[in-house]
UniProtKB/TrEMBL annotation:
It holds the Pfam family LRR_1. The lineage of its organism: Eukaryota, Viridiplantae, Streptophyta, Embryophyta, Tracheophyta. This is Disease resistance R13L4/SHOC-2-like LRR domain-containing protein. InterPro entries: Leu-rich_rpt (IPR001611), Leu-rich_rpt_typical-subtyp (IPR003591), LRR_dom_sf (IPR032675), LRR_R13L4/SHOC2-like (IPR055414), RLP23-like (IPR046956). Signal peptide: none annotated. Residues 23-175 form the Disease resistance R13L4/SHOC-2-like LRR domain. It comes from Vitis vinifera.
Length: 770
């Protein structure tokens, strides 16, 4: 039975059903995997005899009450997989009978001190991972009161150095410390803490140093070892080393295991999960390896420098995931592949045909990646027999011929990527049968014909890339009504003609519209600028294209013409918001409504016959990085408001009929002459053509400077004259009113004059004597 609703209300119902009030005798309470919401009620702590409490896998929120630290008899508390927040109460350190504490994958924050564990002497299992806001802050000499057997502090802040308190844990069997912000080397004592260690996960930290045979010498019970994601770790063992353990799960991805293939794996007869990707391994895979690989459920040797040929048959047990991508393998693709649901041979040097003539040998495949090889020949008709296929990626090879009609039988397909080949012929109508299809790449081929109406059945389609083909006809109006989930529409460089259908405005999720290099004509529909997904200024990764497909092994990609060059986007594809209608025969005035698409990053309307003026409101396109309006018939002045487009890093307004002075300030001052050439009536920097008003400004400036100088001279002499007059007249009027002052003043003047004359006579005599 599934219980839903408020936890407090649920307790109230139990209380009403009990004759003893708050159920004081209850010792076991398991409400896990329900739909309980709300906060943890304080009164739950009144269940004094409770020994077991499991509230995991619900939707409980809020902080953990401090009263939860008062359970005197509680042995086991499980609160994992909720939405609890706040700090862990210090009172938890008083749960002296607690044996199991599991609170992982919540939203807990704060600092854990030694006090939080002060009386937990009976604790054996401590799982606190998945709370990235929790920080363990204890002294380097701290010795915990417990002896743990299970410890999980993954996605937890334990760093920066390796936790020394682990040295006291002699009974630990399961230790999970991945993504725990630990850096530096692993201390030697760590490898001796427990002879019972069965599972060890230290992956995705910043660990470094050399691991030798000695480090593993006492780990005879080890079954599970994940230390991948630590690029500073180097495994240095002899070619004759035989580990003391029989491993089942091994991940050393992104560690340094090379240069040769690790021979010690030969002794591992029970391995079922093996990830040695990006491990600096080169050379060929030894033959003995295929004898131990039969039980492998996952084999990942990608991103190394492995070479040579694969065996003619790859036979595994059950549903295995095999990844040999991004190596140097060559030769023919194995013709017999059994027990494999994912096969990735992409980014290698395989050649020859696709070995699907015996389709029954690949009936288990769900995902097939053969991209970026040298595969030739046609796509076999027998591919239609593998009805379980969800992803087919044959892109970037040398495939020829037509797309087989039988591909419509692959009814589970989500992604079909046949781009960058030499495929020809018409698009098969059977593609319309792929009702689960979300991503279709047929770009860069020689496909011809029109888009068949059966494509309307592809209602889940999110990406359609048919660029660089020879497709013709009108752009179907039903695209705007059938493909309601479409995020990317790329029909670039085909032979489509006619007018742009106004129904394209119905594509409310569209991020990228590229119809460049066709023969489209007529005016740009005003309704085109009602594309809702291009309106938000700050776009987030909210569309299924970047979520659902990215959860699979397939990585979406798209080539976008931006800043005058071809740029391929993969993981950042969701950030690209653009319209490219360049190199068509579009006419009419530039619609002012285009400035409503605030989220635009790329706008290219070059190579058309568009007239009119750039609207002053173009400054509203705050996110614009690349703007190309060149080779049109635009006129008028360049709006001064463009100086506020601070993100704009590429601008091309060349070969139009713009006139007037270029507003060469702000962001506009970062562009050179090439952005403005071919506009005869345009002037000012950065062009060499000067504006007439600049010469007039200089002339008027010189006249004003001259006039200003005259005024200065006139005012100078006038002020000197007035000062002289005031210096004479003011004392005169004062002395004339006071006779005693007048006599004293002139006596003083007489003495000064006599002294000056006497000094001058003496100077003259001395000069004559010399």
């Amino acid at each position: 039975m599934m219980i839903a609703g408020s936890f407090s209300e649920f307790l109230e119902e139990i209380k009403n059903c009990s004759s003893e009030g708050p159920l004081p005798e209850l010792g076991y309470l398991d409400l896990s995997s329900n739909q309980l919401v709300g906060r943890l009620p304080e009164r739950l702590s009144q269940l004094e005899k409770l020994t077991y409490l499991d509230l995991s896998y619900n939707k409980l929120q809020g902080p953990i009450p401090a009263s939860f630290g008062t359970f005197k008899n509680l042995n086991e508390m499980r609160l994992q997989w909720n939405e609890l927040n706040g700090s862990l109460p210090v009172s938890f350190g008083q749960l002296s009978e607690l044996v199991v504490l599991v609170v992982y994958w919540n939203r807990l924050t704060g600092i854990l001190s030694e006090e939080h564990f002060s009386k937990l002497s009976k604790l054996k299992t401590l799982w606190m991972g998945g709370n990235s806001g929790l920080v363990l802050n204890v002294s380097s000499t701290w010795v915990p009161p417990f002896q743990l057997t299970d410890l999980a502090m993954a996605s937890f802040n334990l760093g920066p150095s390796f936790p020394t308190w682990l040295r006291s844990q002699k009974e630990v069997s399961y230790l999970y410390l991945f993504n725990a912000s630990i850096s530096g080397s692993i201390p030697k004592w760590f490898w001796n803490i427990s002879f019972n260690l069965r599972e060890l996960i230290l992956s995705d930290n910043q660990l470094q140093g050399i691991l030798s045979e000695e480090h593993f010498s006492k780990l005879s019970k080890l079954k599970f070892l994940w230390i991948g994601g630590n690029s500073g770790l180097v495994l240095n063992v002899s070619s004759t080393w035989v580990p003391p353990f029989q491993i089942t799960f091994l991940s050393m991805a992104s560690c340094n295991l090379g240069p040769s293939f690790p021979t010690w794996l030969r002794s591992q007869k029970k391995v079922s999960f093996l990830d040695l990707s990006n491990a600096s391994i080169s050379g060929s895979i030894p033959k003995w390896f295929w004898n131990i690989s039969f039980n492998l459920q996952l084999l990942n040797l990608s991103n190394n420098q492995l070479q040579g040929q694969l065996p003619n048959s790859l036979n595994f047990y059950g549903e295995s995931e095999i990844d040999f991508s991004s190596n140097l393998f060559e030769g023919l693709i194995p013709f017999s592949i059994k027990g494999v649901y994912l096969l990735d041979l992409s980014h290698n040097k395989f050649f020859g045909p696709i070995p699907l003539s015996r389709g029954e040998s690949m009936l288990d495949l769900n995902y097939l990646f053969l991209s970026e090889n040298q595969i030739t020949g046609t796509i076999p008709d027998s591919i239609g027999q593998i009805t379980s296929l969800q992803i087919i990626d044959f892109s970037r090879n040398n495939l020829t011929g037509s797309i087989p009609y039988t591909i419509g039988n692959c009814s589970s397909l989500i992604v079909l990527d046949l781009g960058n080949n030499n495929l020809s012929g018409m698009l098969p109508k059977s593609l319309g049968q792929l009702q689960w299809l979300e991503s279709l790449h047929l770009n860069d081929n020689k496909l011809s014909g029109e888009l068949h109406s059966s494509f309307q059945n592809l209602s889940r389609l999110e990406l359609l890339d048919l660029s660089y083909n020879q497709l013709s006809g009108k752009v179907p109006s039903w695209i705007g009504t059938a493909f309601i989930n479409l995020v990317i529409l790329n029909l670039r460089s085909n032979v489509f003609f006619g007018r742009l259908p106004s129904q394209l405005s119905n594509l409310s999720s569209l991020h990228v519209l590229d119809l460049a290099q066709n023969n489209l004509m007529g005016e740009i529909p005003v309704t085109l600028f009602e594309l809702k997904a291009m309106v938000p200024e700050y776009n987030k990764n909210i569309y299924p294209l970047y979520d659902n497909v990215s959860n699979s092994p397939y990585e979406e990609r798209l080539v976008v013409i931006m800043k005058g060059q071809s740029l391929e986007y993969t993981r950042t594809l969701s950030l690209v918001i653009g319209i490219d209608l360049s190199d068509n025969n579009l006419s009419g005035e530039l619609p002012q409504e285009i400035t409503k698409l605030f989220g635009l990053v790329v706008l290219n309307l070059s190579g058309n016959h568009i007239s009119g003026q750039i609207p002053e409101s173009i400054s509203m396109l705050h996110q614009l990085l690349s703007l190309d309006l060149s080779r049109n018939k635009l006129s008028g002045s360049i709006p001064s408001s463009m100086v506020s487009l601070t993100f704009l890093s590429y601008l091309n307004l060349s070969n139009n009929n713009f006139s007037g002075k270029i507003p060469f300030i702000g962001q506009m001052s970062t562009f050179n002459e090439s952005a403005f050439i071919g506009n005869p009536n345009l002037c000012g920097a950065p062009l060499v053509t000067k504006c007439q008003d600049e010469d007039l400004d200089k002339k008027y400036s010189a006249i004003e400077d001259k006039n200003d100088g005259g005024y200065i001279d006139q005012w100078f002499y006038l002020s000197v004259g007035l000062g002289f007059a005031m210096g004479i007249l003011v004392p005169y009027f004062v002395l004339a009113t006071r006779k005693s002052w007048c006599e004293t003043y002139f006596d003083f003047v007489d003495k000064i004059v006599k002294w000056l004359l006497r000094g001058r006579a003496t100077y003259a005599k001395d000069h004559l004597r010399r």
